[in-house]
Amino acid sequence: MLQYVIWDVNPEIFHIGSFSVRWYGLLFALGFLIGMQIMTHIFKKENKPVADTDSLLIYMVVSTILGARFGHFLFYEPEVILRNPLEVILPPYRGLASHGAIVGILLGLWLYSRRKESRLTNQTYLWVADRIAITVALAGACIRFGNLMNSEIVGRPTDVSWAFIFLNNSEYAKIPRHPAQLYESISCLVLFFFLFWFWNQHKERTPRGSMVGIFFIWVFGLRFFYEYLKENQVPFEDRLPLNVGQMLSIPAVLLGLYFLVRSYRTPVVLAEPDTMPKKIKS
Predict the structure, then answer these.
(1) Does residue 248 fall inside a structural domain?
(2) Residue 282 above 60 pLDDT?
(3) For an engineered disulfide with 237, which of 41, 79, 222, 243 has Cβ 3.0 to 4.6 Å away?
(4) Which segments cross the bilayer (predicted)?
């Protein structure tokens, strides 16, 4: 039986001069690349223009990174925005907030769906959001595993048999801790498989908003409780009854409940087939 896990993985895969490739960056990119393949599969199954996945990917990448960056500084270091707003978009990219990423994704999908909501494509906001929720769950699993490879966002001290000692984190080394990153990564992976199965059962008849509702309830409901097992990210959280992650998770869960209830009260209206007469070839 394990007493604890010694975690001394090098976060860097390799480097060439000053350029380095890290596990976190690789896993972050894999989340988008695999998600692109999943969305291509979904578009084919639901007879949507596969070419639209290229623009959807651009919207997702830009909105995720900008949302995560701005969210980090807004929620954890607001003084930086006042002192130097350009630091939000300029390297080094030392902070990403998942709550900010979700807000960015929701805004990005709104912009995307405004261009794709015509009768021909019928990519409404909730239609896209539901299916993107599948890929975001997988990306979340990849990113949290990247946090584990970085030995960051560590858990509180514990004596459980699966505790990790993060030797590469000088601030929290030598004490067995909850592998909170692994808890969240596994939770997101379970959600990914469930949402993909759920979509596969219903496809175009999936209640609009149901999957994004399940996503919010599952991810942020668990996030609220996982925060009790994690070290606070910034010192001012030590003085709060709930930390920032918990306070932001409450409205996210309520939003998820709204989407889920609404989805089963609103019937799914499928796109009507094209009834225009076809030109007969001579």
Answers:
(1) yes
(2) no
(3) 243
(4) 23-44, 56-76, 96-113, 125-146, 180-199, 211-229, 241-261
* DSSP summary character for residue 272: P
pLDDT of residue 275: 42
Task: Tell me whether residue 83 is annotated as binding.
Answer: no
Rounded CA separation 144/139 (Å): 9
Quote the CA–CA distance of 178 and 195 in Å, as a whole number: 27
CA–CA separation, 241 and 246 (whole Å): 10
User: How many other CB atoms are found less than 10 A from the CB of residue 78?
Assistant: 10
Structural domain includes residue 205: yes
Whether the per-residue pLDDT at 271 is higher than 60: the answer is: no
**Range(s) of the domain holding residue 188:** 5-10+22-265
As a whole number of angstroms, the distance between CA 60 and CA 248 comes to: 21
Q: 160 lies in a domain? A: yes
Nearest to 48 by CA among 36, 40, 56, 60: 40
Compute the distance between CA of residue 75 and CA of residue 64 in angstroms, rounded to an integer.
16
Number of domains the chain is built from: 1
State yes or no: pLDDT of 274 exceeds 90: no
Q: State the Cα–Cα distance between residues 176 and 160, nearest whole angstrom.
A: 8
Task: Give tens-digit pLDDT for 112-170.
Answer: 988 876 555 678 999 999 999 999 999 999 999 999 999 999 999 999 999 999 999 88
Integer Cα distance of 26 and 13 in angstroms:
9
Taken in order 182, 34, 138, 197, the sign of the CA dihedral is negative
The residue to which tokens 């199965």 are assigned: 197
Q: How far apart are CA 104 and CA 109, in angstroms?
A: 9
Q: Among the residues of 50-124, which ranges form H helices?
A: 52-76, 78-83, 98-116
One-letter amino acid for residue 1 of the chain: M
The CA-CA-CA angle for residues 96, 126, 116, to 5°, reads 95
Q: What is the mean pLDDT of residues 38-63?
A: 94
Whether 16 is covered by a domain: the verdict is no
